[in-house]
Amino acid sequence: MGGAVVDEGPTGIKAPDGGWGWAVLFGCFVITGFSYAFPKAVSVFFKELMREFGIGYSDTAWISSILLAMLYGTGPLCSVCVNRFGCRPVMLAGGLLASLGMVAASFCRSIIQLYLTTGVITGLGLALNFQPSLIMLNRYFNKRRPMANGLAAAGSPVFLCTLSPLGQLLQDHYGWRGGFLILGGLLLNCCVCAALMRPLEAPRLGSGPAPQRPSHRLLDLSVFRDRGFVIYAVAASIMVLGLFVPPVFVVSYAKDLGVPDTQAAFLLTVLGFVDIFARPTAGFITGLKKVRPYSVYLFSFSMFFNGFTDLTGSTASDYGGLVVFCIFFGISYGMVGALQFEVLMAIVGTQKFSSAIGLVLLLEAIAVLIGPPSGGKLLDATHVYQYVFVLAGAEVLASSLVLVLGNFFCIRKRPEAAVEEEEHHKPPADMRVDSREVEHFLKAEPEKNGEVVHTPETSV
């Protein structure tokens, strides 16, 4: 995921689709891994934190929620920083902040202090790394962009496979304070990744001036006039209410069934291992010529699959059942992760994508703050994990229905006047690209000339 990023750099730069781009891809892989695996990996410390501070499930769940909310909700702030200072300096500062937050958390004496250090400071540091890394990745790749984004997204499950058992190991040997301190040191590797983000230089033609940056508004609120965007934003916000709940509670669920701590933490490793293969596979399938025009329906199916998995996982009564749940959850979760921003780009077009993604993530940040804590409140009240999984599954299922029904009834069946206007404003044939077919299928408003040309800066 990412934020409202509009630092497009000078025009006239051709994406190398390789070369130093592979180093940038590696850096983005590591940053993505830390950004998305960290909120789930810290859940292995929740039991110890509950004993330390005498708090409930909902109180500890706020740590993961604040982390995700900072990652989701700081898009405009990251845009301003990147536009003012550039990608590399912002990422270096973000790496230092992320490390500082975890180191300071190891000295905390209350859960409120943990919210501020682990949640706010570390979350902001990860956000300042994650979003600029996506900008750089997409500057270096154009033709190979789907493959590059798929490989970078695989960093999340890879790191989840390693950080979760590592966190349990650190807790067993050094306690949660020592574990937080060591994890803070590991986050300094974000600074190493920032050093890999070498800016592309525009070619000079003769003695003329270098190409200038294009002028764009920070946030283009006109996207709210697009019915497709509104439907997507509503569906995504509902989805996030339940999407992150099972990974947060599955470890505690297993421990509550009497599963040893090490085996319980291994559940997240199983989930992450399956996710490693699900994301690139889903991206490859979506990129097929005959499949891509129907990507919105494939995305809706992935959400339905995820919600149905949550409902069936609520029936698990032993460790084997939870392992099976994590396998299918990893498949569906990987599909959602691979498709969500490809579908958004197809709906709004590349020119408005940077604003659209920032606005969507701001809305999702609110849902992130509600989802896991509400699950924790339900658990505190009932002491039944099954109810938490049923609630999460119902929310994700509802989001899939909103997207598919909204797309079918409100977007595909457009007024004839809108269709005629689109034909009138259709760009010349030499300005169109293959992905135009996708946007023509999904968008409710007419495109403008040049709006569909894929550039590496506006793709996630």
UniProtKB/TrEMBL annotation:
One of its GO terms (molecular function) is lactate:proton symporter activity. Residues 21-418 form the Major facilitator superfamily (MFS) profile domain. The chain crosses the membrane at residues 20-42, 62-82, 89-107, 113-130, 151-170, 176-197, 229-252, 264-282, 294-313, 319-341, 353-372, 384-405. The keyword Transport applies. It is a multi-pass membrane protein. One of its GO terms (cellular component) is basolateral plasma membrane. Keywords: Cell membrane, Membrane, Symport, Transmembrane, Transmembrane helix, Transport. The keyword Transport applies. Pfam families: MFS_1 (PF07690). It is found in: Basolateral cell membrane. PANTHER family: MONOCARBOXYLATE TRANSPORTER, MONOCARBOXYLATE TRANSPORTER 4. Belongs to the major facilitator superfamily. Monocarboxylate porter (TC 2.A.1.13) family. This is Monocarboxylate transporter 4. It comes from Neomonachus schauinslandi. The gene is SLC16A3.
